[in-house]
Fold each of these.
Amino acid sequence: MDFTRWLLVIGDGMTQTLYMTLVSTVFAYLIGLPLGVLLTVTGPKGIHPMPRLNQVLGIIINSLRSVPFLILLVAILPLTRRLVGTTIGSTATIPPLVIAAAPFIARIVESSLLEVDPGLIEAAESMGASPMQIITKVLLSEARSSLATGAVIATTTILGYSALAGFTGGGGLGAIAVNYGYHRYQTDVMLWTVFLLIVIVQVIQEVGMRLSRRMDARSKK
Amino acid sequence: MSAAHPPERDNQTLFRLEELTKIFGEGEEQVTAIQDIDLTIRSGEIFGIIGLSGAGKSTLIRCLNLLERPSSGKVIFRGVDLQSLSKKELLQERQKIGMIFQNFNLLQQRTALENVRFPLEISGMGNYRATQKAREMLQLVGLPEKERAYPTELSGGQQQRVAIARALASEPDVLLCDEATSALDPATTKSILELLKSINETLGVTIIMITHEMSVVQAICNRVAVIDTTIAEVGDVDEVFLRPASRIARELIFPKGELLERLQGSRYLRIVFDGTAAHEPIIANMTLACQTPVSILSADSRNIDGIAYGQMIIQIPEDQQETEKILSYLTSRGVTVEEVTEATAQNGLFSEEGRV
Ligand SMILES: Nc1ncnc2c1ncn2[C@@H]1O[C@H](COP(=O)(O)OP(=O)(O)O)[C@@H](O)[C@H]1O
Ligand SMILES: [Mg+2]
């Protein structure tokens, strides 16, 4: 394989990996963030305890989280086809990624929100803040740095899952590693994709953590 | 509100609590935090609520704005039964009841100014007016130059000042203080108490102070309730301090273990400074006047605005004549004295018989 073609293949794989990861992360947060807030708010120590709803949510989230990603991916193929019209390629990888990541994100968000000092919530309540005001002005606002750290973890996890999807016809760097490294024994190509995946994770990690620190007023001196 | 109990409408009464009881948990694990609390708090006063740890003080104060829902009984604020209000009405009412805490509870991701703006944002006040008002409040608590500082950049005393500014921003009728000075050193405590007192005087805000320290009550409160799940006694601060009627009040005025350890047959006097004997080194003068050395066992007094409050336990000589001399000197100087013996201490500390 000549160098230019190789570059094209790898470049295309990287673009697809980033596309899958970012779009899936955004959609997974659209579902996972409200779910995480709901889990916290309706929890036993929440501002609006609803034990039944909280339990049901907990069971659904835990069940989804215990299904291995590859199995989930295959199991929801009909749904995927219905949503995006195909079951192969990068776009087809997005629905399973979103469904796998949303419950995970809900838990990450919940744990960030639980870190907020209950005293702050009590103070806001004493000032007559409504539950919605407490969610936006206290919980989400105070936890923003921790939420950003969580987003870094979520994004890198989704990136890892997206590479797995290469086995079932998904696109991206994972697919390149499978096609060239696993099926055609081109170990060097596989090593390159692994190296690129590591670089992407490092960049997300570095940039994300830096943002997280900058968001935290406590670290300002 | 039922027709049978028309709300009290005189403008003297700010809070009325009727048979307030709060029970936590169920079955075996039930804890009665407060029981049958009847209390009237008047507009404009500084009211102290004192008790040992676990006495139910926090539970009681949290019932005043319904952060805690009482198990039974009523909380009547400005003639309105708070439990009869809708959720929305209650949130409105809470804007008239400010609260500060032991740990300040400032939002860490907001500057001092943004913290003070918080209750104004909640009430829907416009951006510009809210900022103006917040600046005014920071000025009031003496921190105008700290408006851009984050809580982590402020000392404990400064944080409590910001918290006070925040609690007062919505112009409440009353300020609830739950151990507001317990996390502060004595000098800072004093300055915060002075600030609260001046707020009470200049703005007319009623203050309800929860504390486990008698010195705090003495420093700024007009009246005090001593609680131990139920109310042990209520009265003017000077009265309660000079003539504690309940065992728990005596215990708060002087911890039992500390005293018993030291009483070994000798005779002791408890000297109470209630602010009348000002600007005078009384013990030094007494030693000079009576030519009798005394040893001080314990002293717990504070100087607020140049006036001494507190108490001192001194050992007195065996000689009856010298004792008389000391007693008459001290009484002539306007301090209250009572003799403490091992028996009276054991028996609930300073009982009526023990008084000189
Ligand atoms: N949320 C709660 N759940 C169960 N028990 C509680 C709760 N809050 C307070 N208590 C109990 O009620 C009693 C009084 O507590 P508290 O009002 O905090 O006392 P204080 O403020 O005087 O120290 C204590 O025995 C405490 O353990
Ligand atoms: Mg307490």
Amino acid sequence: MHSSWLLVCIVLAAASLCAQKLGVGRAASPDEVKAWDIGISPDGRELPPGAGTSIEGKEVYDRRCKRCHGDAGKGGDETALVGGLGSLATPRPLKTVGSYWPKATTLFDYVRRAMPYKNPGSLSDAQVYAVTAYILNLNGIVGASDAMNAQTLPKVKMPNAGGFIPDSRPDTGAGKKKK
Amino acid sequence: MKDRRNFLGFGLATGAAVTLTYCASEPAAKSGAAAALEDEGRDQLGKVVTAYGERSTFEKTARLVPDTKTPATSSSRTPLADTYGIITPNALHFERHHAGVPKIDPAEHKLLIHGMVDRPLVFTLDDLKRLPSVSRVHFVECAGNTGGEWGLKTAPDVTRSHGLASCSEWTGVSLKLLLEEAGVQKAAQWLLAEGADACKMARSVPISKAMDDAMIAYAQNGEAIRPEQGYPLRLLLPGYEGNINVKWLRRIKVSDQPFYTKDETSKYTELLADGKAMIFTLPMDAKSVITRPSGGQKLKGPGALEITGLAWSGRGKITKVEVSTDGGATWKPAQLQDPVLTKAFTRFRLPWTWDGTEVQLVSRCWDETGYQQPTREELVAVRGMNSNYHCNVRKTWKIAADGSVTNA
């Protein structure tokens, strides 16, 4: 009996050694992971609780974003967040959230991680949902009273959702891929 | 003793003469010989030993820093015409930051690996340095490098046309080793790499690349990575566009799908003429450029000189470089500096005699996949004019009869 337990121990020890080969680094706690896990997948699985509408978002935008991105996202010192629909195949394409971005989740993810430019991380999740709703509304993608939250945001259909194709290089010379 | 000082004096004088670009033999014979042997009053003792070295005060080459209202999201360019061999000095490696350079205490910095793994793990820098290390020479090139060459108005010098590329020996840990330590689950297809800078720059990386030649680098050319290159840790994905080599790396999340971050959708995607855009265009295609003679330089007169430049490919080794001195009508093979390394700068050289007439210099290269560097016309035909990124067309320099070199 005693010796068979010993055998089980040896097998288990070997298995865990085998799993973590070098034993360097320490286990991350669930709280540590949660605090840093800010990247949002297109299906929204990491989206936090909270919600906001375009009406609430305008207030956030005018105080925290307008200075750089202009009135109603039309662009100022910094890039426009609105407009450009139908321009992508012209000599002067205007790539904005509305005309170019394939996923609405990207807007929440990026604003939460990086904006406002000089104070990233200073908005609450509800404010990020709200300003996201406002920018989507300015682009005619969601209604003024539509609440953006973990359920609704991933379902938003972006105008250019079908506009992206895989890397088709090499596209010149002898080895070029057949179209 | 006197003899030895003379010898040293000669060494210094010839050192200074090298800065006269393409000095033909005639002026050297007139003034050079007498000057070369002068002692120039260096009888006093020189500077004492120092703890951290600096270059000669005679050397002035520097990164090109643009004048911009938002210097924290900007880039500086490597003066490629002033670098030698294949390694870019750390102080001259190009920069591109989206939210400035963070100041990070290496004792505080941590790397978290989590998501679809059996064991979420936290590594300190000390942990990583205990693990088996790898050192490899690789270029890093911004996807926007050479972007000015899509149009007919091309860049006037090689710093402006190609200076968003640099090459270093990187040392760190294999990413595969860390992922195996955490136990990557079967369904894993992508990972998110995220930096500790103010914008938490983030990119999705295919798991196949992560398990291939990816590394987490902590050193560059024999010393700790510079702050502007990601101190204390950066992701290095050999041959992939610069932006995905996430600097100040603090987190890797393993997933079954890509994240579509801002910098892989809004930016770093290639808009084609029909309005569709290619996404996840990660490897940099083969490219070459002549760095000397190149735009902005002035040849001192006809005679012997070396044509030299750099070639690189994100898909493997450079196998051949050819140089034309007649604008592409005829081509000569250039010598490649040994050893030719994969996904690294490759120095090429061709001894040449300039006859003093107007000529056009251009190079083209091939990599080990058989791919040939395209002309501008070939690339524009398939990508249109709105693509911005991944421009790898050939670059032509014109030498005028007075020796001045400009973009053709």
